[in-house]
Amino acid sequence: MKITEHLKNAKSTLFSFEILPPLKGQSLKELLEGIAPLMDFKPPFVDVTYHREEFIYKKHPNGLLEKISTKKRPGTVGICAAIMNRFQVDAVPHLLCGGFTREETENALIDLNFIGVENVLALRGDAPKTEGRFVPENDGHHFASELVDQIIRMNHGKYLHEETETSFHTDFCVGVAGYPEKHFEAPSMKFDLKYLKEKVEKGAEYIVTQMFFDNEKYFKFVEDVRAAGITVPIIPGIKPITTIGQITMLPRTFFLDLPDALMDELEKCKTNGEVKEVGIEWAIQQCKELVAADAPSLHFYTMSKADATYKIAKEVF
Ligand code: FAD
Protein backbone atom coordinates (compact mmCIF):
# COMPACT_ATOMS: atom_id res chain seq x y z
CA MET A 1 0.00 0.00 0.00
CA LYS A 2 1.12 3.56 -0.59
CA ILE A 3 2.53 5.59 2.32
CA THR A 4 -0.04 8.27 1.60
CA GLU A 5 -2.83 5.71 2.07
CA HIS A 6 -1.29 4.45 5.32
CA LEU A 7 -1.19 8.04 6.56
CA LYS A 8 -4.72 8.76 5.38
CA ASN A 9 -6.13 5.64 7.07
CA ALA A 10 -4.29 6.23 10.35
CA LYS A 11 -6.38 7.19 13.37
CA SER A 12 -3.31 8.38 15.29
CA THR A 13 0.43 8.86 14.85
CA LEU A 14 2.07 5.84 13.19
CA PHE A 15 5.34 4.13 14.09
CA SER A 16 7.89 3.56 11.31
CA PHE A 17 11.63 3.10 11.10
CA GLU A 18 14.67 2.88 8.86
CA ILE A 19 17.30 0.14 8.60
CA LEU A 20 20.64 -0.07 6.81
CA PRO A 21 21.77 -2.97 4.62
CA PRO A 22 24.44 -5.01 6.40
CA LEU A 23 28.05 -4.58 5.28
CA LYS A 24 29.27 -6.95 2.61
CA GLY A 25 30.05 -10.35 4.11
CA GLN A 26 27.48 -10.02 6.90
CA SER A 27 24.23 -11.94 6.89
CA LEU A 28 20.72 -10.60 6.75
CA LYS A 29 19.47 -13.09 9.36
CA GLU A 30 20.84 -11.09 12.28
CA LEU A 31 19.32 -7.86 10.99
CA LEU A 32 15.87 -9.42 10.51
CA GLU A 33 15.96 -11.05 13.94
CA GLY A 34 17.13 -7.77 15.43
CA ILE A 35 14.20 -5.75 14.08
CA ALA A 36 11.56 -8.43 14.71
CA PRO A 37 10.62 -7.04 18.19
CA LEU A 38 9.78 -3.66 16.59
CA MET A 39 6.90 -5.36 14.76
CA ASP A 40 5.06 -5.24 18.15
CA PHE A 41 4.35 -1.57 17.31
CA LYS A 42 2.81 -2.45 13.94
CA PRO A 43 4.89 -0.31 11.58
CA PRO A 44 3.00 -0.03 8.29
CA PHE A 45 6.29 0.58 6.50
CA VAL A 46 10.02 0.15 6.97
CA ASP A 47 12.61 2.16 5.05
CA VAL A 48 15.77 0.54 3.73
CA THR A 49 18.64 2.93 3.06
CA TYR A 50 20.95 2.86 0.05
CA HIS A 51 24.64 3.59 0.24
CA ARG A 52 27.48 4.16 -2.12
CA GLU A 53 30.84 2.66 -1.33
CA GLU A 54 33.53 5.23 -0.86
CA PHE A 55 35.77 5.63 -3.88
CA ILE A 56 38.83 3.44 -3.75
CA TYR A 57 42.08 4.94 -5.01
CA LYS A 58 45.05 3.07 -6.45
CA LYS A 59 48.41 4.80 -6.05
CA HIS A 60 50.67 4.53 -9.10
CA PRO A 61 54.50 4.47 -8.81
CA ASN A 62 54.57 8.06 -10.15
CA GLY A 63 52.49 9.11 -7.13
CA LEU A 64 49.30 9.77 -9.07
CA LEU A 65 46.05 8.48 -7.64
CA GLU A 66 43.60 6.67 -9.86
CA LYS A 67 39.96 6.40 -8.89
CA ILE A 68 39.13 2.74 -9.37
CA SER A 69 35.73 2.22 -7.83
CA THR A 70 32.40 3.95 -7.62
CA LYS A 71 30.57 0.83 -6.51
CA LYS A 72 27.21 0.86 -4.86
CA ARG A 73 26.60 -1.16 -1.71
CA PRO A 74 24.27 -4.08 -2.41
CA GLY A 75 21.32 -5.23 -0.36
CA THR A 76 18.59 -2.61 -0.49
CA VAL A 77 16.36 -4.36 -3.02
CA GLY A 78 16.88 -7.83 -1.51
CA ILE A 79 16.13 -6.59 2.01
CA CYS A 80 12.94 -4.93 0.79
CA ALA A 81 11.76 -8.27 -0.62
CA ALA A 82 12.81 -10.08 2.58
CA ILE A 83 11.01 -7.75 4.99
CA MET A 84 7.84 -7.63 2.89
CA ASN A 85 7.74 -11.46 2.88
CA ARG A 86 8.66 -11.99 6.48
CA PHE A 87 6.78 -9.20 8.23
CA GLN A 88 4.02 -8.30 5.75
CA VAL A 89 4.94 -4.62 5.95
CA ASP A 90 5.57 -2.24 3.10
CA ALA A 91 9.23 -1.67 2.36
CA VAL A 92 10.43 1.74 1.23
CA PRO A 93 13.78 1.59 -0.53
CA HIS A 94 15.87 4.73 -0.66
CA LEU A 95 16.92 5.55 -4.18
CA LEU A 96 19.85 7.86 -4.86
CA CYS A 97 20.88 10.11 -7.71
CA GLY A 98 24.52 9.52 -6.77
CA GLY A 99 26.14 6.56 -8.50
CA PHE A 100 23.23 5.98 -10.86
CA THR A 101 22.80 6.80 -14.54
CA ARG A 102 19.22 7.46 -15.58
CA GLU A 103 19.12 4.06 -17.21
CA GLU A 104 20.31 2.32 -14.04
CA THR A 105 17.61 4.21 -12.15
CA GLU A 106 15.00 3.03 -14.62
CA ASN A 107 16.22 -0.56 -14.29
CA ALA A 108 16.22 -0.35 -10.48
CA LEU A 109 12.64 0.95 -10.54
CA ILE A 110 11.55 -1.92 -12.79
CA ASP A 111 13.09 -4.43 -10.35
CA LEU A 112 11.41 -2.72 -7.41
CA ASN A 113 8.06 -2.72 -9.15
CA PHE A 114 8.40 -6.42 -10.00
CA ILE A 115 9.03 -7.39 -6.35
CA GLY A 116 5.95 -5.46 -5.26
CA VAL A 117 7.47 -2.26 -3.87
CA GLU A 118 5.01 0.63 -4.12
CA ASN A 119 6.95 3.44 -2.43
CA VAL A 120 10.41 4.95 -2.80
CA LEU A 121 12.25 7.72 -0.98
CA ALA A 122 14.02 9.77 -3.66
CA LEU A 123 17.31 11.32 -2.52
CA ARG A 124 20.30 12.95 -4.06
CA GLY A 125 22.90 11.27 -1.83
CA ASP A 126 26.10 12.86 -0.59
CA ALA A 127 29.51 13.26 -2.12
CA PRO A 128 31.85 10.44 -1.10
CA LYS A 129 33.98 11.58 1.88
CA THR A 130 37.02 11.69 -0.39
CA GLU A 131 35.28 14.16 -2.75
CA GLY A 132 34.47 17.73 -1.88
CA ARG A 133 31.18 18.06 -3.67
CA PHE A 134 28.43 15.95 -5.14
CA VAL A 135 29.06 14.96 -8.77
CA PRO A 136 26.40 12.97 -10.62
CA GLU A 137 27.21 10.09 -12.95
CA ASN A 138 27.37 10.93 -16.63
CA ASP A 139 23.71 11.19 -17.53
CA GLY A 140 22.78 10.91 -13.85
CA HIS A 141 20.62 13.30 -11.85
CA HIS A 142 22.04 16.40 -10.15
CA PHE A 143 19.19 16.87 -7.67
CA ALA A 144 16.52 14.73 -6.05
CA SER A 145 13.82 16.70 -7.90
CA GLU A 146 15.12 15.27 -11.20
CA LEU A 147 14.90 11.76 -9.77
CA VAL A 148 11.33 12.41 -8.60
CA ASP A 149 10.55 13.59 -12.12
CA GLN A 150 11.92 10.40 -13.67
CA ILE A 151 9.91 8.20 -11.27
CA ILE A 152 6.70 10.10 -11.97
CA ARG A 153 7.32 9.97 -15.72
CA MET A 154 7.61 6.18 -15.41
CA ASN A 155 4.33 6.20 -13.50
CA HIS A 156 2.91 7.78 -16.66
CA GLY A 157 4.44 5.07 -18.83
CA LYS A 158 7.29 7.23 -20.09
CA TYR A 159 10.48 5.20 -20.20
CA LEU A 160 13.79 6.72 -21.28
CA HIS A 161 14.22 5.33 -24.76
CA GLU A 162 10.60 4.77 -25.70
CA GLU A 163 9.12 7.16 -28.19
CA THR A 164 5.58 6.37 -27.17
CA GLU A 165 3.91 5.62 -23.89
CA THR A 166 4.12 1.98 -22.83
CA SER A 167 1.02 0.03 -21.93
CA PHE A 168 2.32 -0.83 -18.44
CA HIS A 169 2.59 1.96 -15.88
CA THR A 170 4.36 1.79 -12.55
CA ASP A 171 2.54 3.52 -9.70
CA PHE A 172 5.16 4.53 -7.14
CA CYS A 173 4.35 6.83 -4.25
CA VAL A 174 7.42 9.04 -3.85
CA GLY A 175 8.76 10.56 -0.65
CA VAL A 176 11.59 13.08 -0.30
CA ALA A 177 13.87 14.45 2.40
CA GLY A 178 13.34 17.71 4.30
CA TYR A 179 15.67 19.49 6.73
CA PRO A 180 14.26 21.30 9.81
CA GLU A 181 17.75 22.75 10.36
CA LYS A 182 18.34 23.39 6.63
CA HIS A 183 20.34 21.26 4.23
CA PHE A 184 24.00 22.08 4.79
CA GLU A 185 24.63 23.18 1.21
CA ALA A 186 21.65 25.52 1.02
CA PRO A 187 22.63 29.15 1.63
CA SER A 188 19.33 29.87 3.40
CA MET A 189 16.17 28.14 4.59
CA LYS A 190 14.15 30.06 1.98
CA PHE A 191 16.42 28.67 -0.75
CA ASP A 192 16.11 25.14 0.63
CA LEU A 193 12.32 25.38 0.81
CA LYS A 194 12.15 26.60 -2.78
CA TYR A 195 13.75 23.34 -3.89
CA LEU A 196 11.76 21.25 -1.43
CA LYS A 197 8.71 22.71 -3.11
CA GLU A 198 10.14 21.79 -6.50
CA LYS A 199 10.38 18.15 -5.38
CA VAL A 200 6.72 18.22 -4.37
CA GLU A 201 5.68 19.97 -7.58
CA LYS A 202 7.44 17.21 -9.53
CA GLY A 203 5.25 14.69 -7.72
CA ALA A 204 6.60 13.85 -4.26
CA GLU A 205 3.70 13.02 -1.94
CA TYR A 206 5.31 13.13 1.48
CA ILE A 207 8.40 14.42 3.27
CA VAL A 208 10.58 12.67 5.87
CA THR A 209 12.75 14.98 7.92
CA GLN A 210 16.35 14.74 8.91
CA MET A 211 16.72 13.89 12.62
CA PHE A 212 16.37 16.78 15.06
CA PHE A 213 16.57 17.01 18.84
CA ASP A 214 14.60 20.18 19.42
CA ASN A 215 10.91 19.83 18.55
CA GLU A 216 10.62 23.59 18.13
CA LYS A 217 12.79 23.21 15.01
CA TYR A 218 10.33 20.70 13.56
CA PHE A 219 7.28 22.81 14.45
CA LYS A 220 8.86 25.91 12.89
CA PHE A 221 9.85 23.89 9.81
CA VAL A 222 6.28 22.64 9.36
CA GLU A 223 5.06 26.24 9.66
CA ASP A 224 7.58 27.48 7.07
CA VAL A 225 6.87 24.59 4.71
CA ARG A 226 3.13 25.31 4.88
CA ALA A 227 3.77 29.03 4.37
CA ALA A 228 5.73 28.08 1.24
CA GLY A 229 2.57 26.43 -0.10
CA ILE A 230 3.61 22.79 0.44
CA THR A 231 0.73 20.72 1.78
CA VAL A 232 2.03 17.11 1.84
CA PRO A 233 2.52 15.22 5.14
CA ILE A 234 5.81 15.89 6.97
CA ILE A 235 7.06 12.85 8.91
CA PRO A 236 9.54 13.69 11.69
CA GLY A 237 12.77 11.67 11.87
CA ILE A 238 13.79 10.56 15.38
CA LYS A 239 17.18 9.37 16.56
CA PRO A 240 18.00 8.70 20.22
CA ILE A 241 21.60 9.44 21.12
CA THR A 242 23.07 6.17 22.40
CA THR A 243 26.86 6.62 22.65
CA ILE A 244 29.35 9.24 23.79
CA GLY A 245 30.76 9.38 20.25
CA GLN A 246 27.38 10.38 18.78
CA ILE A 247 27.31 13.57 20.86
CA THR A 248 29.86 15.10 18.52
CA MET A 249 29.42 12.84 15.49
CA LEU A 250 25.70 13.53 14.88
CA PRO A 251 25.95 17.36 14.81
CA ARG A 252 29.08 17.17 12.66
CA THR A 253 27.68 14.63 10.20
CA PHE A 254 24.10 15.87 9.93
CA PHE A 255 24.60 19.60 10.51
CA LEU A 256 22.27 19.93 13.47
CA ASP A 257 22.30 21.41 16.98
CA LEU A 258 21.80 19.64 20.27
CA PRO A 259 19.65 21.76 22.62
CA ASP A 260 21.29 23.11 25.79
CA ALA A 261 18.95 21.18 28.09
CA LEU A 262 19.95 17.90 26.40
CA MET A 263 23.64 18.80 26.46
CA ASP A 264 23.44 19.66 30.18
CA GLU A 265 22.28 16.10 30.86
CA LEU A 266 24.71 14.46 28.42
CA GLU A 267 27.67 16.30 29.92
CA LYS A 268 27.02 14.58 33.24
CA CYS A 269 27.37 11.13 31.62
CA LYS A 270 30.57 9.12 32.01
CA THR A 271 29.67 5.93 30.12
CA ASN A 272 27.84 4.94 26.94
CA GLY A 273 25.21 3.33 29.17
CA GLU A 274 24.48 6.64 30.89
CA VAL A 275 24.37 8.48 27.56
CA LYS A 276 21.93 5.93 26.22
CA GLU A 277 19.63 6.38 29.19
CA VAL A 278 19.60 10.16 28.72
CA GLY A 279 19.18 9.82 24.94
CA ILE A 280 16.23 7.46 25.29
CA GLU A 281 14.51 9.62 27.89
CA TRP A 282 14.98 12.72 25.71
CA ALA A 283 13.55 10.91 22.68
CA ILE A 284 10.54 9.69 24.73
CA GLN A 285 9.69 13.27 25.70
CA GLN A 286 10.22 14.45 22.10
CA CYS A 287 7.97 11.69 20.77
CA LYS A 288 5.19 12.31 23.29
CA GLU A 289 5.09 15.95 22.27
CA LEU A 290 5.08 15.07 18.57
CA VAL A 291 2.25 12.60 19.06
CA ALA A 292 0.29 15.24 20.96
CA ALA A 293 0.86 17.55 17.99
CA ASP A 294 -0.55 14.88 15.62
CA ALA A 295 2.66 14.14 13.71
CA PRO A 296 1.73 11.71 10.91
CA SER A 297 4.29 9.06 11.90
CA LEU A 298 7.38 8.93 14.11
CA HIS A 299 10.13 7.64 11.85
CA PHE A 300 13.07 6.18 13.78
CA TYR A 301 16.62 6.13 12.54
CA THR A 302 17.51 2.79 14.13
CA MET A 303 20.94 2.27 12.51
CA SER A 304 19.63 -1.34 12.43
CA LYS A 305 19.78 -1.56 16.26
CA ALA A 306 16.33 -2.02 17.70
CA ASP A 307 16.71 -1.88 21.47
CA ALA A 308 16.67 1.90 22.03
CA THR A 309 13.81 2.38 19.56
CA TYR A 310 11.89 -0.44 21.29
CA LYS A 311 12.22 1.23 24.69
CA ILE A 312 11.01 4.55 23.31
CA ALA A 313 8.12 3.07 21.33
CA LYS A 314 6.98 1.11 24.40
CA GLU A 315 6.51 4.38 26.29
CA VAL A 316 4.93 6.30 23.42
CA PHE A 317 2.63 3.92 21.49
P1 FAD B 1 18.23 17.61 -2.84
O1 FAD B 1 16.80 17.73 -2.55
O2 FAD B 1 18.65 17.40 -4.26
O3 FAD B 1 18.96 18.91 -2.27
C1 FAD B 1 20.37 18.94 -2.14
C2 FAD B 1 20.82 20.40 -2.02
O4 FAD B 1 20.68 21.06 -3.28
C3 FAD B 1 19.99 21.23 -1.04
O5 FAD B 1 20.87 22.16 -0.43
C4 FAD B 1 18.98 21.95 -1.92
O6 FAD B 1 18.55 23.17 -1.35
C5 FAD B 1 19.79 22.18 -3.18
N1 FAD B 1 19.01 22.13 -4.42
C6 FAD B 1 18.02 21.28 -4.75
N2 FAD B 1 17.62 21.51 -6.02
C7 FAD B 1 18.36 22.51 -6.51
C8 FAD B 1 18.42 23.21 -7.75
N3 FAD B 1 17.61 22.87 -8.76
N4 FAD B 1 19.33 24.20 -7.90
C9 FAD B 1 20.17 24.54 -6.88
N5 FAD B 1 20.14 23.92 -5.67
C10 FAD B 1 19.25 22.91 -5.49
N6 FAD B 1 21.81 9.44 1.94
C11 FAD B 1 22.23 8.25 1.43
O7 FAD B 1 23.31 8.18 0.85
N7 FAD B 1 21.46 7.12 1.54
C12 FAD B 1 20.24 7.12 2.15
O8 FAD B 1 19.58 6.09 2.23
C13 FAD B 1 19.79 8.36 2.72
N8 FAD B 1 18.58 8.44 3.33
C14 FAD B 1 18.14 9.66 3.82
C15 FAD B 1 16.87 9.73 4.42
C16 FAD B 1 16.39 10.94 4.92
C17 FAD B 1 15.02 11.00 5.53
C18 FAD B 1 17.21 12.09 4.86
C19 FAD B 1 16.72 13.40 5.43
C20 FAD B 1 18.46 12.03 4.26
C21 FAD B 1 18.94 10.82 3.74
N9 FAD B 1 20.19 10.72 3.10
C22 FAD B 1 20.61 9.52 2.58
C23 FAD B 1 21.07 11.90 3.01
C24 FAD B 1 20.86 12.71 1.72
O9 FAD B 1 21.23 11.95 0.60
C25 FAD B 1 21.73 13.97 1.83
O10 FAD B 1 21.24 14.81 2.85
C26 FAD B 1 21.97 14.75 0.55
O11 FAD B 1 23.03 15.68 0.81
C27 FAD B 1 20.79 15.58 0.05
O12 FAD B 1 19.81 14.79 -0.43
P2 FAD B 1 18.38 15.43 -0.87
O13 FAD B 1 17.62 14.34 -1.49
O14 FAD B 1 17.81 16.18 0.24
O15 FAD B 1 18.93 16.45 -2.01
Small molecules bound: flavin-adenine dinucleotide
Task: Give the total of beta strands.
Answer: 10
Which geometry do the CA atoms define?
globular
Q: What is the string of helix and strand elements?
A: HEHEEEHEHEHEHEHEHHHEH
CATH architecture annotation name = Alpha-Beta Barrel
> Helical residue percent?
40-55%
Report the portion of residues in β strands.
Answer: 15-25%
Instruction: Work out the helix count.
Output: 11
Assign the CATH topology. TIM Barrel
Strand order in the sheet with the most strands: 1-2-5-6-7-8-9-10
Main beta sheet, described?
8 strands, parallel, barrel
Based on secondary structure, the structural category is alpha/beta
Textual characterization of the structure:
This is Methylenetetrahydrofolate reductase. Keywords: Amino-acid biosynthesis, FAD, Flavoprotein, Methionine biosynthesis, NAD, Oxidoreductase. InterPro entries: FAD-linked_oxidoreductase-like, Mehydrof_redctse-like, MTHF_reductase_bac. α5 (about 145-155) packs parallel to α6 and α10 (about 270-290) runs parallel beside α11 (about 305-315). A hairpin with a 5-residue loop joins β3 and β4 (about 65-70). By secondary structure, the chain is of the alpha/beta class. The protein has helices at about 5-10, 30-35, 75-85, 100-115, 145-155, 190-200, 215-225, 245-255, 260-265, 270-290, 305-315; strands at about 15-20, 45-50, 55-60, 65-70, 90-95, 120-125, 175-180, 205-210, 235-240, 295-300. It is about 40% helix and about 15% strand. The structure holds flavin-adenine dinucleotide.
